[in-house]
Amino acid sequence: MLKQIMIAHDLSPAAEVALARAAQLAQQHQARLIVSHCLSAPSNSATSHDLAAIKQQITQRLQAQLTQLASHPATVEWVVKAGQPSIKLAELVRAYSVDLLVVGQHHQASPEGFSGTTLEHLLQKIKVPVLLAVEPVSDNYQRSLIAMDFSQTASRALQQLIKLISADTQVTALHICEMAEQQLTAEARSELEWQQQLFAQVIKDECVGLALAPTRIEQRVVQGELFNCLEQALQQIQPQLLALGRHGRGEMADALLGSLTHSLLAAPPCDLLVVS
C-alpha cells in the first residue's frame, strides 16, 4: 500500500488530469495526498506579504479543483514553494517520504511546467516512482503493461506496478528480443525459445516473491525492433498504464530503452509509471 502520494501541480489543464488520478489513487490506497506547486523565483521587489498572498491564492485554486473531483482522499496537505521546480520537488519528495510522485504531461511553453528537460532532471534527482498521468480518470486502472528485461530495475518496476494497481487490474509483462524483423533462422529461433523459458521463470519467481497466483501476470515474449514491438503491444492491449524500469543517469537496461523512455515522456500513449 502507498502511504504518501504527491502531485506536482503546475496550474495547467494537464495538471488537473494528474490531480484527478492522484486523488483516485490516494483514495484507493487510503494514503495522504500532498498537493504541491512550485513558484518561479520571486522578483527582488516581492515582499514576504506578497508571497504569502500568492501562495494563499494558489492553494485556494487547487482546493477548488479537488472539491470538484469524484475522488476525495481523507487526508490532504497543501504545499506551495518558490524555486526551481525540479530542485524544490526533489526536496519535498525527501522531506515527506513520498511513495509516489504524480505529474501531468509536460508543457514546453510553461515557465513553471514540466518541460522534457525539467522532468528528466527530476527523474535523475529522486528514487521514488514517478507517474506521468495523462488520461482522464473514470475508475481504477483496468489494464496495465510493463516492458521488462532481466534486470533488477525491471523487477523493481514490476513490484511498484503491483503495489500501485488494484487486485483486479490486468497485468501483461512484455519482453522484447531485439532482433532484425525477418524470418527467423534456426539460431534466432533457438535464442527466442531460450528467452521465452528464461522470462517464464523470471515471472514465476516474481509471482512467488509478490505472493501472486502464477496466472496473475500474462507473459509475452516477442521478437523484432523495440519501438515496433511495443507499439504493437500497446495497440493490442490498450493499457491505461505502462510501466518501465529506469537505470541510472537516464539509461534503461536495453541500449535503446533510453531513447524509448525519452520518446514516451514526450508523447505518452497512456499513463506512464517510471521506476528507478
TrEMBL record:
<feature type="domain" description="UspA">
    <location>
        <begin position="1"/>
        <end position="132"/>
    </location>
</feature>
<protein>
    <recommendedName>
        <fullName>UspA domain-containing protein</fullName>
    </recommendedName>
</protein>
<comment type="subunit">
    <text>Homodimer.</text>
</comment>
<feature type="domain" description="UspA">
    <location>
        <begin position="141"/>
        <end position="275"/>
    </location>
</feature>
<dbReference type="InterPro" id="IPR006016">
    <property type="entry name" value="UspA"/>
</dbReference>
<keyword id="KW-0963">Cytoplasm</keyword>
<comment type="similarity">
    <text>Belongs to the universal stress protein A family.</text>
</comment>
<dbReference type="GO" id="GO:0005737">
    <property type="term" value="C:cytoplasm"/>
</dbReference>
<dbReference type="InterPro" id="IPR006015">
    <property type="entry name" value="Universal_stress_UspA"/>
</dbReference>
<dbReference type="InterPro" id="IPR014729">
    <property type="entry name" value="Rossmann-like_a/b/a_fold"/>
</dbReference>
<dbReference type="Pfam" id="PF00582">
    <property type="entry name" value="Usp"/>
</dbReference>
